[in-house]
Specification:
The complex is a heterodimer of chains A (112) and B (115). Chain A has 112 residues and is mainly beta. Helix content of chain A is 0%, strand content 50%. Chain A contains no helices and 11 strands. By secondary structure, chain B is an all-beta fold. Chain B has strands at residues 3-6, 10-14, 19-21, 23-26, 32-38, 44-50, 56-58, 64-68, 73-78, 87-94, 103-105, 109-114. Chain B is globular, with a radius of gyration of 14 Å. The chains are: A mainly beta (112), B mainly beta (115). The A-B interface holds A 4, 31, 33, 35, 40-45, 48, 50, 56, 58, 90, 92, 94, 96-101, 103-106 and B 9, 32, 36, 41-46, 49, 51, 90, 94, 98-103, 105-108.
Amino acid sequence: NAGVTQTPKFQVLKTGQSMTLQCAQDMNHEYMSWYRQDPGMGLRLIHYSVGAGITDQGEVPNGYNVSRSTTEDFPLRLLSAAPSQTSVYFCASSWGPNTEAFFGQGTRLTVV
Amino acid sequence: AQSVTQLDSHVSVSEGTPVLLRCNYSSSYSPSLFWYVQHPNKGLQLLLKYTSAATLVKGINGFEAEFKKSETSFHLTKPSAHMSDAAEYFCVVRKENTGFQKLVFGTGTRLLVSP
C-alpha cells in the first residue's frame, strides 16, 4: 500500500515554463488537496477536490490549475511558472471531510 | 475564523528531558485540532488529533496534548525526548462548516534534541 505518491521529488523550472506535479493515491480516498509550504508560513491550501470531476479553490489558487478525472489522481498544473512559486508542494488525501489526511512526501520546486 | 499560533519557532532540549511545544488556537466553534510532525525531507505524519472527546489526547511515539478551552491552548508534550524526535511540528485546526476538510496550519516549531 503506497499511500500518497508525488512525482517528481525535485524540479527546477525557468520562469515562464509550464509543468505538472503529479499526485496519486491508492486508498480510494474521495478528498484530495494541494498545499504549498513556504518558510515561516506553514502550509497553505491551493486547490482541493471532493471527488472525481469536482474541484475548488483554496487559499492561494492563483497561477495553478487542477482537474480530477479519476479518484486516484489529482495533478497540479503550473501554466507559466514564476519565481514566487518556488516552494515545497504537498498533496494530501482523506476518506471523508472529517477523517485523517495523509500527505505525500512533497515536491521541491525551484523557479529561476 | 479559525487559526492557530505556535508560540515558539525553535525549541531545544536535551535527550531524556521533557518536551513542550506550545499552540494557541482561535475558533468560534468547538475546534478539531491536530499535531503533525515532519522529519527532514519527509512528508507530514499525524501525531494526534482532538475532536471534542477526551481533552487529554494520546498520540504516537509517546506524545500527548491537552485541550484547554479556558486557555484556548493545545500544547504538545512528551515526558522524555529522544534523538529521533528532532523534526518540525505543526499545530493544525480544521475549518468547520465546510464540505471539505480545510486544514489551517501554524507556522511550525522546529524541535532540536541534543545528546
